[in-house]
């Protein structure tokens, strides 16, 4: 069976952009489209998570325009990114998907669910927050310093993604070993232009706007909100806010974890997501 480590990188063209993607797992049902975090490419997913999900359903990983092996210019807004991903699904001939959006990918997933509701059967919002919510307008200084370096290191990822406890940091080191394991056909690293465009999108999304929160009431897809109990990048409290405003939402918070709780608890998250999607 094809796995995260062996899945070939494929390409699909839409509106002049060639999107790099990988598709693997059990075909036949609604595929799970996974949307990545700030500066993340195909190889920044945790294989322990993606393979556990792919054991039950087909999984599709994709690079945004201008990211990794995808061509085009990186988008400077969440809305533009959402339109690009919709075009990508159309290029693959997908009439319905489930979506798991992580961090920035969760912003994009919310927009897709709002502007193309019939496309999204079920929605998983992981380590993310709603447009205009308090505490969303950029990141606190220490997180920004580690996230926006010219070249990300393992130390930066551990600081941003995992709780500053011994137990969480140990799980972070295990994750670093897993996501670096693939050697054949690794995706291209993201550029500084991607970093700057995506941070523009993060800031635009987070401009304080109480009225923008009402958008969440328009999400029709059953939604699972997932978060770590001490996210240093996107405040955990806004996940509770999302879950309260999306009409058909439930929330699960994982202990002793931060932004990348899904890479700290890959088996547990995969089980929770699989149960929800089923």
Automatic annotation (TrEMBL):
<feature type="domain" description="AB hydrolase-1">
    <location>
        <begin position="31"/>
        <end position="264"/>
    </location>
</feature>
<dbReference type="InterPro" id="IPR000073">
    <property type="entry name" value="AB_hydrolase_1"/>
</dbReference>
<protein>
    <submittedName>
        <fullName>Pimeloyl-ACP methyl ester carboxylesterase</fullName>
    </submittedName>
</protein>
<dbReference type="Pfam" id="PF00561">
    <property type="entry name" value="Abhydrolase_1"/>
</dbReference>
<dbReference type="GO" id="GO:0046464">
    <property type="term" value="P:acylglycerol catabolic process"/>
</dbReference>
<dbReference type="InterPro" id="IPR050266">
    <property type="entry name" value="AB_hydrolase_sf"/>
</dbReference>
<dbReference type="GO" id="GO:0016020">
    <property type="term" value="C:membrane"/>
</dbReference>
<dbReference type="InterPro" id="IPR029058">
    <property type="entry name" value="AB_hydrolase_fold"/>
</dbReference>
<dbReference type="GO" id="GO:0047372">
    <property type="term" value="F:monoacylglycerol lipase activity"/>
</dbReference>
């Amino acid at each position: 069976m094809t796995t995260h480590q062996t899945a070939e990188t494929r390409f699909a063209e839409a509106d002049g952009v060639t999107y790099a993607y990988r598709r693997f797992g059990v075909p036949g049902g609604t595929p799970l489209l996974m949307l990545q975090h700030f500066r993340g490419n195909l190889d920044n997913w945790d294989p322990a998570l993606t393979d556990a999900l792919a054991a039950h359903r087909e999984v599709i990983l994709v690079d945004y325009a201008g990211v990794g092996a995808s061509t085009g210019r990186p988008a400077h807004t969440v809305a533009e990114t959402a339109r690009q991903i919709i075009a990508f699904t159309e290029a693959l001939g997908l009439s319905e998907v489930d979506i798991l959006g992580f961090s920035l990918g969760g912003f994009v997933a919310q927009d897709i669910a709002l502007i193309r509701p019939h496309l999204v059967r079920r929605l998983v919002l992981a380590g993310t927050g709603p447009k205009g919510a308090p505490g969303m307008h950029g990141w606190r200084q220490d997180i920004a310093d580690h996230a926006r370096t010219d070249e990300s290191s393992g130390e930066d990822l551990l600081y941003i993604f995992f709780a500053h406890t011994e137990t969480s940091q140990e799980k972070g080191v295990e994750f670093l070993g897993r996501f670096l394991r693939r050697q054949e056909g690794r995706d291209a690293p993201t550029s500084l232009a991607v970093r700057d465009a995506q941070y523009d999108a993060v800031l635009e999304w987070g401009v304080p706007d109480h009225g923008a929160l009402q958008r969440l009431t328009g999400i029709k897809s059953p939604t699972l909100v997932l978060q770590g109990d001490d996210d240093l990048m996107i405040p955990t409290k806004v996940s509770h806010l999302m879950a309260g405003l999306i009409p058909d939402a439930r929330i699960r918070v994982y202990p002793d974890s931060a932004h990348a709780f899904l890479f700290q608890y890959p088996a547990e998250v995969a089980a929770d997501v699989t149960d929800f999607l089923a």
